[in-house]
């Protein structure tokens, strides 16, 4: 049987690295994509040579990791780095199957005559397909002291775990989440004035829910028109049928696929382990493992319950489930339209939670439910674990109309826990309501979505807010 030769591998490497030819940059398609709000922080890590660490770019599938790596390569080229000093390999390329990372690196260095002290930039994409990638990467970082390594992978939590276990002091993790609503507006070319046209902003928000979490669907009409084929099937096939089984040794992948479908349809709902086990036919212990796996792949989020006094439960029997990306729901089950689909309210809530998840300390967020009421979102102080904010989410303005029947639960929770302000998210209503001891702020969901997670992507949102307020002041 004939074997793949080094000559064939070198030929493929040259194809994957067109910038080795002077004056040639990255693919035109990648150049056309807007840069994500996370790009600058990521590129700063790519450029930085001290301390000597590899960058591990993590995140769910189809959120633009490969594009961002290519944009970083273009920035290196634009900054004067010689193309022959930059090496990119996607480890899911069939030709590279079974080849060690060091073998590929040595072929590159031999091709261009780089000695052991050469200052190089090396990118390994889809690193989870390389056996024991973390051990090999650590060895490369230790052996090639003047090479800056950057790798990417999709099973993000598993990658983080491995990087922390095997790359202590050698790896810097960087998480790229799905596209935020603020980034979506930037990708669509909307100015800050969009803030003050609530109906238009709501239309954009519905579009964001339907396809905006995936950059590819914004940039490519074919992907947008057939989300099931281009997005959902790819994620399900590669994550559930390949990534997770290889990482965790899952035997029944169809069972896991059915569970994800069930959870995706119920995004925004409270779910009990008991009922989920009965409905899915999966034993509780196995169910808990599957939920951890789906979280590890950044497909789902769980919010944990607190009571009227903001106390946690010693034994958790239920939780609220959310997709990390609301667009995955519509990719699986079809798009929603304003006020015509019963799913819309839960998808709006999912979109809000996905924005908050991009900010810091998401583990401080919970939902409250007790015998006589519930509040959709409650943030606890990291230090004191006491409530610091309470949010009710409605895709309607009915809650903002006298006699304000729908506010009593959030009002009761605020009074019980000493909060002076509560937030009610609406469809279009935007005003403040002073109650006896509490101020309730009503705000459109779409506007809040542009501001949630502000600490996670500060520049994109703060600049937009500043421009919006300036424009409003001139009108």
Describe this protein's structure:
- It holds the Pfam family AAA_14.
- This protein is α/β, with parallel strands linked by helices.
- The chain folds into two domains: 170 residues, P-loop containing nucleotide triphosphate hydrolases (Rossmann fold); 284 residues, no CATH class.
- It is 45% helix and 17% strand.
- Strands 6-8-7-9-10-11-12-14-13 form a nine-stranded mixed β-sheet, with helices on both faces. A five-stranded parallel β-sheet has the order 2-3-4-1-5, with helices on both faces.
- The radius of gyration is 24 Å and the shape is elongated.
In short:
Helix 9 packs across helix 16.
The N- and C-terminal alpha carbons lie at a distance of 75 Å
Shape: elongated
The total domain count is: 2
Given as residue ranges, the uncertain stretches (5+ residues, pLDDT < 50) are: 454-475
Structural class: alpha/beta
* Count of helical stretches: 20
Taking all Cα atoms into account, the compactness measure Rg is 24 Å
Estimate what percentage of residues fall within beta strands.
15-25%
Report mean pLDDT, rounded to a whole number: 89
